[in-house]
Design a protein that fits this description.
Layout lengths: L10 H11 L8 E2 L11 H7 L17 H14 L4 H5 L4 E5 L3 H15 L5 E8 L5 H6 L3 E6 L10 H13 L3 E7 L2 E2 L4 E2 L2 H13 L4 E4 L15 H12 L8 E6 L1 H4 L7 E5 L1 H11 L9 H10 L3 H29 L15 E5 L2 H4 L4 H13 L1 E2 L1 E2 L5 E2 L6 E2 L1 E5 L4 H13 L11
Parallel strand pairs: 1-12, 3-4, 3-5, 5-8, 8-9
Antiparallel strand pairs: 2-10, 6-7, 9-10, 11-16, 13-16, 14-15
Protein name: Aminotransferase class I/classII large domain-containing protein
Keywords: Aminotransferase, Pyridoxal phosphate, Transferase
GO molecular function: pyridoxal phosphate binding; transaminase activity
Length: 434
């Protein structure tokens, strides 16, 4: 943030720079918005960077990823997802390495589908809302997006009947080609979607031959005692039962390793898909914008991924995030006057938590964005709104607003953020709570 050039176009960054230029009036900025993990990367993983062989600093000829890492990621998926060994040996799937972030591979997949699967029809993306920005890379590939709302009055649980109706309509429409983006450990609602719902959804998609994107970014970021729902295993079983030809039914799984090990800036993740599709994505579409790079990071993760240190870090992070989740909600109740029902709204996965904006902001246009802006300008605390919430619904078009907090910060940081909000009067109700 010391540069004179604005880092990006996010409106939050504009507020942040104005706050900095005003002299940080409430204290140094507190970042609780987009997944900042600048201080949490495990030291043992960082130490591996300094012990890497020289050859990993050049281009890698294996477009599907640094072979030692790719092989370990295959073993990891087979173990963590309880995949049948013959699914791989029979050509149901192959595993590769995303070397420049999962977003770039999602974009390549969207372009591939638009060219080879849409066949002149209008491509449409189906996905939940609120959600990560799946619409972004798909829009750039020519897709429009239909959002399926996860409504707060339902606890952000999907409406299976509504989803199946949308899938059925998409499958019947001869003028469109649909794709479904599925994030099972759901960002930002922190809901681990139920196995029954996911299995029935996948069954409907397979029956209508609708391509699928599975984003498992937070599969390993779940609360202790929470069994993460595994969409890939269910999908492969559905395809096996239907005897679906892997050459004819496209699907792609991506899973960031940055979320699990606090190294988002490395851009390394897992990819899995039918072998021919994955080979095509890596050796044709990926070549439009990069070779296989970041060998240094791939080597370090290959040395780290199956170590006792990696397992210990993962388990510790899961516990810390869930403790922080409960602690933050308690802080909202104790210091900002949130009702006691806030304590029962805890999610069970991801490093994020949604929380309602104060009541006075719900009566304003774009209330969630205004609340996030006031938190930054007045308290120096940077949250983000829950895109693409808020929804305009009801006879008075009142907006249902939520903000999103990043929970992989230290508890002392969360406490400081809430105390600053208390000091400037950002209470849930109209006045300081008793």
């Amino acid at each position: 943030m010391s540069d004179t050039v604005r880092p990006n176009r996010l409106h939050e960054v504009g507020w942040l720079m104005e706050y900095r230029d005003a002299g940080n009036p409430a204290g140094p900025p507190i970042f609780l918005s987009l997944g900042e993990t600048w201080e949490r990367t495990p030291q043992a993983l960082l130490d591996l960077l300094g012990r890497a062989p020289r050859h990993v600093h050049g281009y890698q000829i294996a477009m599907g990823g640094y072979p030692p890492l790719r092989q370990k990621l295959h073993s990891l998926l087979e173990r963590e997802y309880s995949l049948k060994q013959d699914w791989h040996s029979n050509g149901r799937y192959e595993v590769g390495v995303c070397a420049t972030g999962t977003r770039s591979l999602i974009y390549d997949y969207a372009r591939y589908l638009a060219k080879h699967y849409a066949a002149g029809r209008r491509p449409v993306l189906l996905t939940f809302a609120p959600a990560w920005d799946y619409a972004g890379p798909f829009r750039a590939a020519g897709f429009t997006t239909r959002f399926l709302p996860l409504l707060p009055e339902r606890g952000f649980a999907p409406d299976l009947a509504e989803i199946l109706d949308a899938v059925d309509a998409a499958g019947r429409d001869p003028s469109t080609t649909a794709v479904f983006a599925l994030n099972v450990q759901q960002n930002p609602t922190a809901q681990n979607l139920s196995p029954d719902l996911v299995d029935r959804l996948l069954g409907a998609l397979v029956a209508r031959k609708i391509p699928i994107l599975i984003d498992d970014a937070y599969f390993a970021v779940t609360a202790p005692g929470t069994e993460p729902t595994c969409a890939m295993r269910m999908l492969l079983q559905r395809l096996d039962d239907a005897d679906e030809d892997p050459l004819l039914y496209p699907w792609l799984l991506v899973r960031s390793l940055g979320k699990q090990f606090s190294c988002n800036g490395w851009g390394i993740g897992i990819a899995a898909a039918p072998p021919a599709l994955l080979e095509n994505l890596f050796n044709e579409w990926q070549l439009h914008h990069h070779y296989n790079i970041n060998g240094l990071f791939q080597h370090a993760l290959a040395e780290w991924i199956d170590s006792p240190d990696a397992e210990a870090y993962t388990q510790t992070q899961r516990s810390e995030i869930q403790d922080n989740r409960q602690h933050f909600l308690q802080l909202l109740h104790d210091h900002l006057g949130y009702p006691s029902t806030i304590l029962s709204q805890s999610g069970t996965c991801t490093s994020f938590q949604l929380f309602p904006i104060p009541l006075r902001y719900t009566r304003q246009p774009h209330g969630a964005q205004r609340f996030v802006e006031d938190c930054m300008r007045q308290a120096g605390v940077l949250f983000t709104d829950a895109w693409p919430l808020p929804y305009n619904r009801g006879p008075d078009l009142m907006e249902y607003g939520f903000a999103r907090v990043f929970l992989s910060a230290r508890q002392s940081t969360l406490e400081e953020a809430v105390h600053r909000m208390e000091k400037v009067g950002l209470f849930y109700g109209e006045a300081r709570p008793c």
